[in-house]
Structures are given as C-alpha cells and as structure tokens.
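Possible race condition, two jobs.
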Amino acid sequence: MDYKDLQVLFEDNHIIVVVKPENVPSQEDKTGDIDMLTLVKRYLVDKYNKPGDAYVGLVHRLDRPTGGVMVFAKTSKAASRLSEQIRNNEVEKHYMCLVHGVPNDKQSTLKCYLKKFEQENIVRVVPELTEGAKYAELEYKLLETKDNMSLIYVNLITGRGHQIRVQFSSISHPLVGDKKYGIEEKMKLPLCLWAAELRFAHPISGKEMVFRVFPPETEPWTKFDMEKYLGIRIKNIY
C-alpha cells in the first residue's frame, strides 16, 4: 500500500482520521510491512512538503487483520488529550463482526479476564487472579443471521488485544475468517471484524466527532444489508 492510497475521512491542524485497510499493522512490527503510522507520516510530509519527518501520535490501535476507522494526533497536545479520553473510557468504539452460528442471547454483555502469552502471540481467557490477567468487557447485539453466520454489533468497553475474537470464541461463536481463535476454514476468508464507528470529543474544541465506515464490499459482508445498520446512527442500534 502507498500513502497516496490513504483514505482520509477528516483532517485539521490537530487530528487526522483515516480508514485502516485489513491486514495493515497499526504501527511497525517485526514483519517490516508498511504500517498505518508510517503511511500517515508520509502522507503529511508529502501534502505539506515538510522537511524530514512529521509528528503523528498513535493514540489507539487496531489488530493487524482488523480494518476500519482510526484517529491519529497531529500535535503532542492533541495526542495527550485523546489518550486521556481513551483512559477515561470516553471514546466510543463500535465494531461489526460476523460470527459462526447464532448466539443464544440476542443481546448480552461478555465479561472475562484475558492474558496474552507473548511467545505464542495468543490471548486466552484466564481466572481473575491469574498473574497478568486484564479485565475485558463488551456489549453486543445480534442484528441478522444468514447461512449460519450472524452479523453482530459490538460496543467495546475495554480495549484488550484480540478481545472481540477471544470473547466470541469463548462462547463457541468464533469470528468468520479467524484462523487463530476460530475454525480452520477451507475458504480463505479474511477476518470479518470491522471498526465501523468512532466517537470522541475533538481534543481542542471539545466538539463531538463521529466517523462511520462500511466494511469492504466483499463476501461474506455483502450477504448482509449494511446500509440498514450503518446508514443510521449506529449508537441507537443497541
């Protein structure tokens, strides 16, 4: 991917909001593949003809296979204020995902403790008192079911790595396309997890900012009428 292909939803002197494609790291990792932080920096350097480097603050992340909306800070002041909002759970992160099967509860809250095992690069549900365990919580609502797949709306309360994937796998409804926590599929589908909406207060003006993006127009997302759910205020779905 080239920085010239970057899809910019909004930009001012303080923040830039972009769409992260699937399978692009949020920041540099051991693979050396191009990452979002680098792409945004290159975009700004080119657009404003900046000598050398451009300041870009990474205030939140999406797992590599997950695509969707991300906000980056263009100043250290904006980065600090956005980070504070995230720490205070004042940033709303809404996701769409496809899971195998149909959950028994059409609307529920999932709570557990998660621990990352670094050597295996895997996250597991563990007892509360396990060393290194972190509390994880999300709310979900079942929107639609087709071909033994369910379209799920997720309101992420905590932002743990691999959280949505692990929590749905733990209730026996792994995400479609999830090779790590799900079913080994003959069809090579991408992970069906999409950061559909981001809500936060502008770090300088305080104005409410709302950004919504649709999942890719590819199978199996196209089995579902996404306009029905994302064409309205997604917050009202829950």
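Job #2 (started ~2 s after job #1):
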Amino acid sequence: MPDFLGLDTSNYTTSAAVYISDENRIVQSKQLLPVREGELGLRQSDAVFHHTKQLPDMVEKLCGERSISGPEAIAASARPRNLEGSYMPCFLCGEGLGRSLAAVTGSPLYTTSHQVGHILAALYSAERLSLVNERFIAFHVSGGTTDCLLCEPDDELIVKVTEIGTSLDLKAGQAVDRCGVMLGLRFPCGPELEKLAAGADKLIKVKPTLKGANASLSGVENKCRTMLDKGENPKNIARFCLDYVGATIIAMTAAAREQCGELPLVFAGGVMSDVIIRDSIVSHYPEASFAAPEFSCDNAAGVAIFGCMKHSGVKKCL
C-alpha cells in the first residue's frame, strides 16, 4: 500500500504525517514547541533544539500507528515560502531528517514550502484537492503570515503562488498572541482568546485599515492596550481583537476578487481555526472553503500530499 511521509518543522510545531493514497487518508503526529509563560515565541536556535528533540518522537509515534517499512516517497518543507531568499533554520530539521531517511530507504525526497503544505492540507480537509488544477485565491493566516495569494497549477511546484496582498506590519497571529499575552493567556493564545471572546457582552466597532489589497494590523495591539487601561472587560477586548482580524481578512478578500475575479476561496493557517473569525468570513463568503482545525494549524499533512503528487502525479491524489 503506497505511503507518503511528510515532515514539517515550523516555528510553532514539530509534525510528521503519512498520506495513504489508496485510501485518501492522513495519519499524523505533531507537538507544539514549548514556550515559556509570558513569552511570545522562540528564537530560531531554541526552535531547532526542540525540533531535534521532538522529531524522533513524532516519527516513532507515527510509525507505531502505521507500519512503514519504506515509504513510496518522502517530502519535507524546506523553507517558509517558494520565494528566493525565503529561509528559516528550523526547517533544516525536517529537511535533514528527510534526506537521511531517503538515503537509508532509497525513497526519493521532494521538498516544498511550508506555505504550500498549508494550502494542500486545507484543500484536502475541505475535499477540494481538485482545485490544484485551477486558479483560486488562498489565504495563509498564521503567526508569521497574513497573505492573500493567487494560486495556479504548476508542474514543478504543484501550486504556483503569487502574492496579491499581505499585512504590511503586524501579522494576524501576532496580533492574537500579543492581545492574549496582554490579557494573561499562555502563548500561543488563539484557543484561549477564542474562549474568552465567546463571553463578550458587547461588540466594539472595528474599521480595518487597507491600502489596496494590503492590510495594516499594527494598531490592534495599541487599541487593546488602551481599552485594558480604561478598564474594559477582557472578554470584550478579546472579541474586538478577533473581530478586527476577521474584518481585515474580509476586506482583503474583496480587494483580491476585484483584482482577480470571482475565483474559489480557500482559507488556511492556524488563525483560520478560530470559529469567530471563520463565521464572520462565511457570513460574507458562504462558498469559502476552510480546513478543519487539525489541518489549519501547522501540520505535515499537506507536505505528505505534495510528495504523492510529485511522485505519482496529481491525479493519483484526487
């Protein structure tokens, strides 16, 4: 039975996954990188250390759930984006293990970007993998990105990504985490901030800041701090933060469709697992596709699917 192993070592999560192509099924194992209380992330040197420690555990756990004598192919995310100069040391961990396994097993190794992995995971989860044969608009919204992307079929890259718009300063995940830490929550703050926001007793008006399809989120942290200093209920501050992010993505979507036409919409990345933000977007774009939470946050599922598509052809995975 063909198995395709995927590895992803982002600045948030250590992840390994197997795509079982004959069953169109994903088995994955992942673990968040540990962050000290009150801090807003990790230095790359610390991320590399934790991946080095955690990655063997993830692969051992994965192999315990799924017997893998030798995968058909191995894939790893080797860079954040498919852009010249896109580089983060943490991705060397997954790529390095992938190279080692390929050398031992004789399986071919394919590399892609963390971003393409997110997009393919979202398409898989939403049962829209056939979109790799079409043009569509994808959002990758996480701690390091708030990107609106034109996606097109490509024989080499599988998905060719061209930026339509981005956040010119603070990213959506950063806004969520900074607001959360400000309110005493533990990093990464998304799930806890969502729970806090669910208890809000009023909605505070938001007005997103856009320049074309590009957004600015730098004011969110200051506005949340001002409200906190004035004694606003933390639940209302949390809801304001999430509503601001949602309104910004909605405005970016409108600008993107004005440029590119009424293309299908796909939303990927950890921030997109937030129900408040997702429901806000769906109220404006009910046809939009979203990944399930386990495929929204950083994961190796899309990377494993990329390996299948590169090795066996796109049709094998549809």
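The longest strand covers residues 146-154.
Logs attached separately.
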